[in-house]
Hints:
Layout (H helix, E strand, L loop, with lengths): L1 H17 L7 E8 L11 E8 L7 E6 L4 E7 L2 E10 L7 H14 L8 E4 L8 E7 L4 E4 L1
Parallel strand pairs: 1-7
Antiparallel strand pairs: 1-4, 2-3, 2-5, 5-6, 7-8
Amino acid sequence: MLRSRVPFFALVGLVAALGCGGPKGVNVSGKITPPSGVKWVDTDNIEVRFVPDDPKAKSASATFPAKDPSFSLKDVPPGKYKVAVTITPYAGEKDSDKRKRALDPVNKKFDEAASKLQFEVPGGSGANSTISVTVDLAKETVTKS
Length: 145
């Protein structure tokens, strides 16, 4: 009886080691530059979202402090994405309500509905594929770095 179970467990181990197959996601790292006329504060939070054109696909997002305006997204499936950005002042800061109102036009311009920022994530060549991008809100571009 033991002999018949050995090939089964060997097969299960082989399948687990090989993975499920299919397209692999890509790690996307990047930096973001502020739009013209906007100076963010170190305590502001920035959220960047990659929203897929394919309604069945999942979006990818990262939130990070403005003092280090760089982000990292893990295992993003290949495809075309709209890039949305939101800048949120830290609620505990002096004049945060005033800053929020000042940032509203920028946030509306780059929200999921209105953003013109586009990027196509290429197919990965493996689990550790990484691409770097620059999201330039002043130029309204997303480019591979």
